[in-house]
Amino acid sequence: MSSGRVDGGSGAAAHRRSEASEGVAQRDEEQEEDAEEDLRDGGVPFFVNRGGLPVNEATWERMWKHVAKIHPEGERVALRIRGASDLPKIPIPSVPTLQPSTLIPERLEAVQRYIRELQYNHTGTQFFEIKKSRPLTGLMDLAKEMTKEALPIKCLEAVILGIYLTNNMPTLERFPISFKTYFSGNYFRHIVLGVNFGGRYGALGISRREDLMYKAPTFRTLSELIFDYEEAYRRCWHTLKKVKLGQCVSHDPHSVEQIEWKHSILDVEKLGREDFRKELERHSRDMRLKISKGTGPPSPTKDRKKDVSSPQRSQSSPHRRNSRTERRPSGEKKPTEPKAMPDLNGYQIRV
């Protein structure tokens, strides 16, 4: 009897240790995924220019070496471009200047047109280093630099630029939407800026695929918007695995708060279709509730209503209400997913 109790206690202790180790492994995997999220492009690693602009010589040479690895023509394309003396001048897009009387949907189209005119960055080197932990004011300074340099951008840069260019639209709510998909042995990540105007959802962004970027604000619910992206992924043979939804972003360009990128983490396969839809609608209700209670992102109009003439930073920048512990992950703990070795010489369908 006593030995049985000892064995049972030992077994329970072993079970607790096993659960604890699984929890640590899961956290480590999530942290690893977060670290890699901005450094992978369709299973193929890409570089980030951390030396600022103008690009230094080491970063420049590394970029061209990487181009030779990922492009189907290899070194030939790099030599052809670098050796050309008569390359055409690329027109510099003008930042849209719109009248306050212009309707929000038209203003969104103009912003998206500008993002598109900057063009997608196919070099494999992201020109602007974006740290998601930076305060909003720092990211807005970076967005201003993007408009001055007018270089090609990737999807995360487009989200920051979209926030910057819509800060003067206080009736428009903005929130990040991240996608994780699977295709041909690799995981792919993409991000857009979700928008809500007049109860209708849409998105701003950039992608290699036309139907994975801009969405006019015509979707009645958040789930309709996400399902439209899912269908777009399906058309290019990608399987949607996860969706991460952030909270609304402040309209105050001087806010020292951080963007909340992952308030809801939804595992599509574990949830099932109907539960996935319910979680999406729950997230949209959470955003509406925070805004209606005044705990959401303040607009410049509300912040400076009492002192219109004052150029000082608003004293009512929103305090971050949702810590990492308040995020709502979907269902059970995520299983360990096999990480395929990137094929640097492969040229896959990337989105």
UniProtKB/TrEMBL annotation:
One Gene Ontology term from the biological process aspect of the record: regulation of angiogenesis
Q: Where is the active site?
A: 155, 190, 207
| Source domain of life | Eukaryota
Gly residues compositional bias: what residue ranges? Answer: 1-11
**Region Disordered: what ranges?**
1-43, 282-351
The annotated regions of Basic and acidic residues compositional bias extend over: 16-28, 323-337
Q: Which InterPro entries match?
A: VASH1
Read off the PANTHER family from this record: TUBULINYL-TYR CARBOXYPEPTIDASE 1 (PTHR15750:SF5), VASOHIBIN-1-LIKE ISOFORM X2 (PTHR15750)
Q: What is this protein called?
A: Tubulinyl-Tyr carboxypeptidase 1
Annotated source species? Podarcis lilfordi
